[in-house]
Design a protein that fits this description.
341 residues; alpha/beta; nine-stranded mixed beta sheet; four-stranded mixed beta sheet; 11 helices; 15 strands; 22% strand; globular
Length: 341
């Protein structure tokens, strides 16, 4: 029987100009859906796992369209609450060369932002669940959601459910001081922490010496100390850190590290030419959760997660639409990109 994973957060309507058009150039926008925890649920459903997404959506047709976008991949939407006035929106302008990508949020007053603790029966939701995943984006949306996340973590812990969290700091949603306070409380319940080269510093002030992200300088070995300090503070079972070296908006080097039981495991590094980088971290989280639930060895776990997210960078939209076989093929070294006939 497939392991059951519950994810909780906001799914939004994504509006993006075609190709590399800037927003000020656009006369049409391509509509799709996405959001951190929803993206993770889709990855896991594509891998054959029993993945459910929990949120609150308006009862009208746009809310239903978001539900339908999840259902087509086999995500369990039965615990989605309906109510409120609107679905959050984000506008994406894809960067190219030295011009960075840009995200503009229009999510204030969304149904999930105004959700109440009584909207979610966590004891029922976590019945039979093996894993719970959320990100630092969700508690940043509103004070109510921070409280709901805490209640969910407590309920999951009481049920013996493994909890993972991607720190995912967003400075457009809250300050570093707010993030430190709220995430410091939530991380007491977390078993598996996911971070990138900036989040640990932005949220908890823990920095890898010798790293300057904007200059494209990454000291991978420094993250051993970052993971060690995070583990000492919160008692995490595992800490996974994605390691992105940005050459330009189109070209990155992509790798990751897993810290477990005092040992570090580094993945191979992939040079990636980016089609769409939004959801790259979420695809890493989905790959990591899949590998953990299927009892992969630590090195195989980090290789699977990185290969999954490497492939996501080649796919338009938030969702990582790849299979386990495709990920394993890349993780085992077939990175040629040759036509499969």
């Amino acid at each position: 029987m497939a392991k059951k994973i519950i994810t909780f957060g906001e799914i939004m309507l994504r509006l993006a100009p075609k190709g590399y058009y800037r927003i000020v150039q656009a006369d049409t926008f391509l509509a799709s859906y996405g959001g951190g925890e929803a993206n993770v649920a889709v990855s896991l459903a594509n891998y054959g796992m029993d993945a459910g997404f929990v949120t609150k959506l308006p009862g009208h047709e746009i809310g239903q369209s978001a539900v339908n976008a999840l259902r087509q991949f086999g995500v369990d939407t039965s615990n989605i609450v309906r109510g409120g006035e609107r679905l959050g929106i984000y506008f994406l302008e894809k960067g190219a060369s030295q011009r960075a990508s840009k995200v503009i949020y229009d999510r204030a007053g969304s149904s999930i932002a105004e959700a109440k603790e009584g909207d979610f029966d966590w004891e029922r939701i976590f019945e039979g669940a093996d894993w719970f995943h959320f990100t630092g984006i969700t508690p940043a949306i509103s004070k109510n959601l921070a409280d709901i996340c805490l209640k969910a973590c407590k309920a999951a812990k009481e049920k013996g459910v493994t909890i993972s969290c991607d720190l995912n700091y967003r400075n457009k949603l809250w300050s570093k001081e707010q993030a430190n306070q709220v995430m410091g409380e939530l991380c007491r319940y977390v078993d598996v922490c996911i971070s990138n080269e900036e989040d640990a510093y932005d949220v908890f002030g823990i920095k890898s010496e010798g790293t300057e992200v904007t200059a494209g300088e990454l000291n991978k070995e420094g993250y051993r100390e970052v993971a060690k300090k995070l583990t000492e503070r919160f008692g995490f079972q595992k800490v996974a850190v994605t390691l992105r070296t940005s050459i330009s908006a189109n070209d990155n080097n992509w790798a990751a590290m897993l810290y477990q039981d005092g040992s570090c495991y580094f993945s191979r590094e992939y040079p990636i030419h980016i089609v769409d980088r939004v959801g790259g971290g979420d695809s890493f989280g989905g790959g990591l959760i899949y590998a953990c639930l299927n009892d992969y060895q630590p090195q195989d776990t980090i290789e699977f997660a990185v290969a999954a997210s490497c492939l996501k960078h080649s796919i338009e939209g938030d969702f990582n639409q790849v299979s386990v076989d495709e990920v394993i093929k890349l993780a085992k070294g077939d990175a040629s990109g040759r036509v499969v006939r």
